[in-house]
Amino acid sequence: MKEPLETLYVKRTQKDYSLSFKLQIVKEIEIGKLGITECRKKYAIQSRSTVVSWLRKYGNFDWDNQTPNAMQKTPEQRIMELEAEVKLLEKQKALLERQAYIADKKAIFFDMMIDLAENEYQIDIRKNSASEQSATSAEQKEKL
User: Fold this and answer.
1) Looking at the structure, do residues 63 and 81 belong to the same domain, yes or no?
2) More confident of the two residues 98 and 61
3) CA distances from 9 to 12, 46, 52, 118 (A)
């Protein structure tokens, strides 16, 4: 009979891994393909701190300030980003124009309703805008 194979624990050091292997792990984590735990399991890396140290050493993330390092973008990438931003702004503009149009229609509708109510019930609903100002508000306007 065969005895079950035992997994032997072999202590490894940073020197056991090649630079290209380390860079591959860092790249996979940074692009979001795998997380730290998944990389450890996939490539049989024993310690999480090993992967984290590679990320600190070879990654594009500034661990001291907790911000990504500014990577130089190619002109094509920058153009694509700006085009996407323009499309987003155009969509936002169209939405705001629709909202302004609806608000104008509502204002006209409410104005008509007030006119109808004033005519029907013979009462003044609108505030008189030609009323005299109080002394304090007149003084404040003069100061401006």
Assistant:
1) no
2) 98
3) 9, 9, 21, 90
